[in-house]
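Colleagues,

Please find the record for the three-part complex below.
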Amino acid sequence: MSWDTGMPLLVLASSLLPGLVIFFLPEERIVTRTTLNLAGATLKLALVGVMIWGALYGHHYETRLPILPGLDLVLRADPLSILFVALSSILWLVTTIYAIGYLEGSPNRSRFFGFFSLCVTATVGVALAGNLITFLLFYELLTLVTYPLIVHRGTEVARRAGRTYLIYTIAGGTLLLLGTVWLYTLAGSLDFTARGFLSGLGGAHHTALVIIFVLLIGGLGVKAALIPLHGWLPQAMVAPAPVSALLHAVAVVKAGAFGIMRVVYDVYGIQFAATLGVTLPLAIVAAVTIIYGSMRALFQDDLKRRLAFSTVSQVAYIVLGIAIVGPVATIGGLVHLVHQGVMKITLFFCAGNLAETLGIHKVSEMNGVGRRMPWTMAAFTIGTFGMIGAPPLAGFISKWYLGVGALDGGQGWVVFILAGSSLLNAGYFLPILYAAWFKAPPDSWPAERSFGRRETAWALLAPPVVTALLTLAAGLLASAPFSPLQWARFITTLEYAL
Amino acid sequence: MPWLHWGVIAIVLPLAGAMSCFLWPRRAIPLGLVTALGIVTCVAGLGWQLVEQGAQRYAVGGWGAPLGIDLYADGLSLLMLMATAAVGLGVSIYSIGYFNREKARYFWPLWMFLWAALNALFLSADIFNLYVTLELLGLAAVALVALAGGAEALTGAMRYLLVSLLGSLFYLLGVALLYHSFGSVDIAILAARVESSPAVWAAVGLISAGLLLKTALFPLHFWLPSTHASAPAPVSALLSALVVKASFYILLRLWLEIFPPTSAVLGQLLALLGATAVLWGGLQALRQTRLKMLIAYSTVAQLGYLFLAFPLASITGWTGALYMLLSHAVAKTAIFMAAGNILYFGGHDRIADLDRVVQRLPLTVTAFALAGASIMGLPPSGGFIAKWLLLEAAIRSGQWWWGGILILGGLLSAAWVFKVVGYAFTRSRAPHESRAVPVGMEWSALAMSMVAILLGLFASWPLALMEIGLPFGGKGAE
Amino acid sequence: MNTTLSAILLLSVPGYPLLLAFPALRSRSPWPCHIALLPAVILLAVPAAFSVDLPWLLFGSGLAVGERSRWLLAMAVVLWGAAATLLRAPANQPESNHLTTFFLLTLAGSLGAILATDLVGFFTFSTLMGYGFYGLLVNGGEMAAQRAGRIYLALLILADLALFEALLIVAAVTDDLSFGAVHQAVAPSASLNLYLSMVLVGFALKAGIWPLHFWLLPAFRSARPAAALLLGGVPIATGLLGAVHWLPLGEISSPGLGLALQWLGVGAMLHAIVAGRIQGQLKMLPAYAAIFATGLFITALGAGLADSAAGSRYGDLAHLFIVSLGFGLAVLTVGIGWLAARSPDAVAPAKRAGDPAPWFERWPGAVVRWGAQMGSDTLPRLRASWLATAGRLWQTRAWQSALDGGERSLQRWAFAITLLLLLGVAVAFIGALS
């Protein structure tokens, strides 16, 4: 097996093997566990770096294992998957550091980190999947390995949240399976191809293809939390903060959005999907989700729930970018996949810091917290302004491309959706900032832990600061080579054969 | 002919093992294990042989059909043998820790005897030998069920015995009718001679009815849950994984070879019963409060899947059903083992009182969850491949409603699997005593569940083996 | 002067204050606010016009200083220097530490906006300026200051939205977003009118031009000295500058729009005179002066838009006007502050505290409270009730007894049923076959 065929497997193994080993580590082997975790995350990052470099120099990374006659398990590094893999491996490293700090001294850490690694493995598998059945495989695996993370605390509330999560995701997975099998019987192939592989099917199949599209998007929409399939997401907030961060930024929600991308671009082909007339309904669903999610976020007092509804709204941006047919909007959707991840993970890290250091879980408890934890709140501020879409942060770039793409594609109404959403985003984020920076702090915090002169532990503070800087860099340096924006442009040239 | 050794040895070896375990009860465990390993080697050898030379027929003692005893091995029987070998090895290792010395004395000879009957059944080439092996299988299984002791187990065993005898009786009547009409019991000869006539229809009806009773297809499943739940865990595993499948194997074999080209109605009827079984079994499983009863009802549901292939009548459909059989055998074994561990650990199997077994028996719960993933058909697992093939066949044949049943059944299985797993994370209200579970029991459960998962990743090998001798080639092809 | 040096100098004009805005980076410097102005002063001292292209920044951006912007820069440096001196009263308190941060952020935004050469750069810096100025207004202030801040913030967000729409319209037409290119690209475009109206509304909100001057009066009433001094030279001047930069002056002749703007400007001036007369508070004088001056500006702008020839001549004048407006308002504010310090009676107290919250604050609050009451379920109450219904259905006696009864009768009459069923199945099979 040459390097080029083994590479995707190595990338998977770099988190799978540490995860499996960690399961069997006794609880008190902290140093070994930490070393394994960090080594795996660093190795994965390095491998992804090599893969990006190689892809630029014309290497073709692909692994094929036959699973059924005529169907292979394909892992392939195309530009789109590299975008997602790079995002998840960078954020995994950061989140691992954070999780080590967050879970210090809590029980069942070996189990937690084991599943944590498996979760990333599944995500990377989703990213590298070269056909729909491989995608389905890792997608379902992701469902399974996330469940123990959600019920990690072992409380009754956690069990219920886990149940809700499963009801939604298993049902979604079933729809996806049905659509995939049906598609296979029609097309005889499931390999992702730039600009799709279905346009050759005759007009007689078009009704079936539309139904399949609905099935597939329905299945993926559950994880992407499109309305009305988003009910599990706010409930899943009972999970520990690193899990929420990973769930919202990289793993589950993103896997859904990424899947929609794959289906629209690499299965149907965007132009063919537009001829089938399925993109406009998708755009409308996304638009409704954007507005509805923001509205609901406005009403939440629980910080993490507010962030959760914000995710519902923000991930729909990605879907919107896909559903507006046109290269510019595609860039917007693709780049938001990365930007939303970086920004949202910052916010969740900060929320976790507040909960862990001061015992703050509600927005109404955040008065004056900026004085107590200036670094955390500075990172939070950058994250929120990014979400609102203020220049020069990452969110501005996404909104810019979505807006221009909408005008380009003749869908002017989208601009108003964007404006309304920005307004609502400001409406639910700025009061938090106001309370944190300008209101007087209370006499005592709900449950304060002291960390000496620092505001909180290093491992908790460094990750949000780093991701906040990434948010800033992704916006400021959008035109620099290797920025998410440039990579998204590159992918778009492939998908539209520009 | 070198292959003959493998096939015949696979039957003779467990018989010898049963004898020796009976004669030297103190050495039963090592003797049993050696035999188990020997059988696995035989099956592997047979498999290699078949891959090299294709399907094989062998006349024991050199007489051959129509008078003598013929053995026939093709992809279908090979796969059944392999499933039996895999499950058998796992159960053998598991039983080391499970049974105390007293029980082990009876368990090992009976189990070896059962294994011999199974192997003989899968290799038989005529319908009378099938009857004989079926009867032996039933008797051994009844004795194993009674092994648990106690009123419940004895009632279960008694009921099982009666059902088993009744089913065999019906089957025997059908065989007699066929023999009377065509003067042979050899499958190949019958296949050539059989033609539509009232006697054949009656025979088909009787045989099918008897086999359906033994396969516990809804509504003839009433005996299964209590029997399977009251038996000791390794025995439950054997019953669910192998014994009920043996009668399904006979039905499938006869359906493919002997039964006259039938109207679509018959296949639809079987599938309808299967679909009802899937839903009924799934719903009943969800309602159970005891773990082993739950698993037993899930077996009822899973057996229903197998019958969904009959109206599809395509190679994909048959392969799917057979793959379902294989992966269910492995996964259900793992699940019963895990349930046995939990029962052993806490002394009860009330689902609501599982009390954080996920911390205390992590390997067992992992095994349960992995095998559960296969049962509900999540990728990557054998169950997923089977479901995929069946779904594909259903959609291709335009009978998508059977696909809908598959999907619904998967959802019901997911519901019960996660109901159990969810309670494994939480603390129960009443804490209870616990005793340590032997390592071998935990690991063998995990190993079986790993096999269930690997069946999903390396499906192309078993699927290629199935094609040997084209068991579905003749009638199944569209 | 070589390019590298000039690039560093230009970048450090907004960049240095930004760096200093981090408390950790300025903890040892004694005069952080003054030091932050240093690069700008050096830039003023070097009499050459130079520019730097930053293709990696945002969508490709740049900074430049030329004849016109030099004036503005000079005005900004003087005003910011003065404000920094006013600010430097209580040191080493968390309050003042915060204030310094906001001061430096606003400073960076304001200087950057003056040097920006393209739409996105200007937009970015003016947004930074806006949010920073909000902090400056609100930090540690009274109720009235907070309310003024909230109004300013709300209008700022609306203004940014309008300008963002304008940006999108431009970006759909051209890829080059420098001012000159945009003027040429947008002038013949079909969406010119939409663009013009978005830009005008956006900057009118930002600069507080009548009739969109909602934030101006409360801000002047409640701002503390340092902020009040800057009101004219920073938010208002940046807003006006934006209008000059963004509007394609000299490229279009739109008499209708021009006339409308001129009338608006006249209206603004009349309003300033009449309302200022009625109000009669000395402290509010700079506010009405600002409304009057911006009215004047708008009138001129209308003339510029109405005729392309007038428009091209308008640019220089507009810059000078903005400079003098900034200086003038600052002098006025300082003068009145000085008067107030001498005779407190001359300046009436700010509006009494405790007046009811205005509608635009009550309504959003009410909506949020209503939403919070609706519970956190999706489609309030609906999903919960579905689950409950499903649960009840599952627990329903009839269901349970059907499932139980079915199973039990199968068990109880096992053998009778078996025989019957077997016969039935056999018959059915025979029937099916024949």
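Chain A has a mean pLDDT of 88.

Comments are welcome before we finalize the supplementary table.
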